[in-house]
Specification:
Length: 485
Amino acid sequence: MDNIIKDIDIISGEDAQACDYKTTVNEFTGKNKKLYIESYGCQMNFSDSEIVASIMKENGYDTTSDFNDADVIFLNTCSIREKAELTVRKRLSQFNTIKKQKPDMTIGVLGCMAERLKEKLLEEERLVDVVVGPDAYRDLPNLVLQAEEGTKGVNTFLSREETYADISPVRLNSNGISAYISIMRGCDNMCSFCVVPFTRGRERSRDPHSIIKEARELFEKGYKEVTLLGQNVDSYKWSAEENNKARLNKKAKGTEIVTFANLLEMVAQVSPSLRVRFSTSHPKDITDEVLYVMKSYDNICKYIHLPVQSGNSRVLELMNRTYDREWYLERVSKIRQILGEECGISSDMIAGFCSETEEEHQDTLSLMDIVKFDFSYMFYYSERPGTLAAKKFPDDIPLETKKRRLQEIIDKQSIHSHERNLLDVGQLQEVLIEGVSKRSTQQYKGRNSANKVVILAEGNYNIGDYITVKITDCTPATLFGEIVS
Ligand code: SAH
Ligand code: SF4
Ligand code: F3S
């Protein structure tokens, strides 16, 4: 999932999702206790931390950005690659000193690593007091209370129903302009390399009415952009009948069925001034209907994150992605046919998957030449215990080869990103101003519809404004522009 580092479009290899983390902001609403959360991994995790903060707020905690000041420290963790877990282990060891000084402080490990390792984490990391998986956050206040009384606790129950639909998130990740809305949880896809189905459980879709309500409330508070989140948004499906049966929503009406295309349209209708984005799309599931809805609404951003993983059909089969090279290329030409060249397309790529030959790696490079992704998140394969690939296929590509193949992918992506950005130069584009540029406080930055960062020359505008910008220059990672109106 993308957008973790907003100012950098090309993120190289193993560092992409593992090393970057977000912390909580300072919030003073007069609560007695202080909570510090550090969130690793994907946008779903960042979004979950907002739910956690909300649950803890109800139980007497304000968030703080200084862990020295905290009564409770949570690390919301990621297991996607080995490096992601090693980063968290290292971080935990840094907290040893502060735990010695403040033995009453509670330290919790949340998220995917908690779910994967369960009780083992308490044995391996002595300073940890609570271990809580992604579906058990409602139990956090209770577990923290027990920890304060001296009993360590673990809850890694995975639910088939939990969507936290009723919880109003504390917006930790937000600049007051853009916000995440989780529309579904879990994943049923079982890609052979991937730990997510084991750490996040079965796929379930959130009640569309609660999603629309959240989008509306955000818009009323002044937000200008929402990103609908799920591991696989195109398989979003909610049916009133099923929810009635499960007694999840007693008010659910008759036979209403809502698909992702329907939901996207409903969110787009909240207001033409509310930009709508979504992530992640699975190539096997993205429908023409979704593409036509995108075309019909100016406020649905023309950008699709469509991870291919490999350009070779045999490797895709081993990965259990359930599409082949031809299918993927057909989806891309449909996107181009319906939404045109301006639609941004990005991808995730894995180099050196089990038994990948040099020719098969070349297929990934040649697919990139055909599609010309705007940017990509690129990794080398990291075997994850318990996954289908770990059980069935030897991790037989030497690390040196994986790294070399990854570098070739990164180098090619950099050329394509530059080529794609050069096409924007000279164009007039609508940009939403999101904040001050990292490079200089004199410069503002925003994003265009295709999700590209645009750095703006000084001008008369404010954060949250939609402005028309003339793109004047670019690097492989960034566009530069000046305000027209
Ligand atoms: N649901 C999204 C992906 C979520 S994980 C999808 O299906 O596209 C984000 C990315 O991490 C994946 O797309 C994949 O490229 C990468 N990834 C997942 N497991 C990995 C592993 N074991 N080794 C290396 N990269 C991995
Ligand atoms: Fe993992 Fe595949 Fe699910 Fe994405 S679709 S989260 S890669 S199992
Ligand atoms: Fe990581 Fe879990 Fe997200 S493994 S990528 S935090 S779903």
